[in-house]
C-alpha cells in the first residue's frame, strides 16, 4: 500500500514540475470597420451598386495580422434584381514585432480612390502596443501605384 501511495505522490510531484503550457494565440478584431459604396449607371438603364467593407484580425501574441475584406455587387434594372455577386477573404500580413508578447492594436484605412489616395486604392495604418512594456509601433502602408505597396513602421519614443 505504501508503495502505491509513493508512486501516486511521485506522479503528482512530476506533474507539478512540468513547464507551463505555452499560451495559446489570442485573436482580436479591429473595431474600426468601414463600409463604402459606389453606384454606376450602365447602358440600357441598368444600375450597379458595389459595397466593400474591411476589418483586421490581429494575433495578440505574435503581432501577425490579417486584412479582411468583403464586397457585394448588385445589378438591377427598373423592375428587378438581375445579378448579385459577393467576394471576400483575408490576406496575411507580416509581424509588427519580432518577438512574442501580449499586444494590443488598432487599425484604420483611407476610403476608396478619392482625394485621400494619391496613387491608387489608398492605404491603411496599424498601431500596435506591447501591453507588458511601454512599447508602441505605428505602421503605414500605401499603394505605390506601380504594383506594390510600400509599408514602413516606426517605434515611438516617449519623452
Brief rundown of the structure:
The protein is mainly beta. Helix content is 10%, strand content 52%.
Give an account of the 3D structure.
This protein starts with a helix and ends with a strand. Residues 1-22 have low confidence and may be disordered. It has one domain. It has 159 residues and is mostly beta strands. Strands 1, 2, 3, 4 and 5 form a five-stranded antiparallel β-sheet that branches. A hairpin with a 5-residue loop joins β8 and β9 (149-155). The chain is elongated and about 60 Å long. It is 10% helix and 52% strand.
Q: What descriptive keywords fit this protein?
A:
single chain; 159 residues; mainly beta; five-stranded antiparallel beta sheet; 1 helix; elongated
Helices, by number, come to 1
User: What is the count of β-strands?
Assistant: 9
The string of secondary-structure elements, in order, is: HEEEEEEEEE
Please indicate the count of domains: 1
Gross morphology is elongated
**Could you give the distance between the termini?**
67 Å
Main beta-sheet strand count, sense and barrel state: 5 strands, antiparallel
In percent, how helical is the residue content?
A: 10-25%
- Pick out the low-confidence regions: 1-22
> Strand share of the residues?
over 45%
Specify Rg, calculated over alpha carbons.
Answer: 25 Å
Structural class: mainly beta
Overall pLDDT, averaged? 76
Task: Give a topology summary.
Layout: H1 2-17, E1 27-29, E2 34-42, E3 46-59, E4 65-76, E5 81-93, E6 103-109, E7 123-130, E8 135-143, E9 149-155
Antiparallel strand pairs: 1-3, 2-3, 3-4, 4-5, 6-7, 7-8, 8-9
Amino acid at each position: 500500500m505504501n508503495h502505491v501511495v509513493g508512486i501516486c505522490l511521485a506522479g503528482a510531484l512530476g506533474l507539478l514540475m512540468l513547464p507551463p503550457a505555452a499560451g495559446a494565440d489570442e485573436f482580436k478584431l479591429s473595431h474600426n470597420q468601414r463600409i463604402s459604396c459606389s453606384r454606376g449607371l450602365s447602358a440600357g438603364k441598368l444600375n450597379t451598386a458595389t459595397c466593400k467593407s474591411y476589418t483586421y484580425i490581429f494575433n495578440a501574441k505574435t503581432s501577425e495580422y490579417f486584412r479582411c475584406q468583403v464586397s457585394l455587387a448588385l445589378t438591377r434594372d427598373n423592375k428587378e434584381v438581375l445579378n448579385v455577386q459577393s467576394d471576400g477573404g483575408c490576406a496575411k500580413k507580416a509581424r509588427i514585432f519580432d518577438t512574442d508578447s501580449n499586444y494590443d492594436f488598432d487599425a484604420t484605412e483611407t476610403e476608396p480612390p478619392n482625394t485621400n489616395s494619391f496613387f491608387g486604392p489608398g492605404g491603411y495604418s496599424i498601431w500596435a502596443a506591447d501591453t507588458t512594456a511601454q512599447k508602441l509601433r505605428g505602421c503605414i502602408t500605401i499603394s505605390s501605384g506601380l504594383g506594390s505597396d510600400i509599408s514602413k513602421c516606426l517605434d515611438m519614443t516617449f519623452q
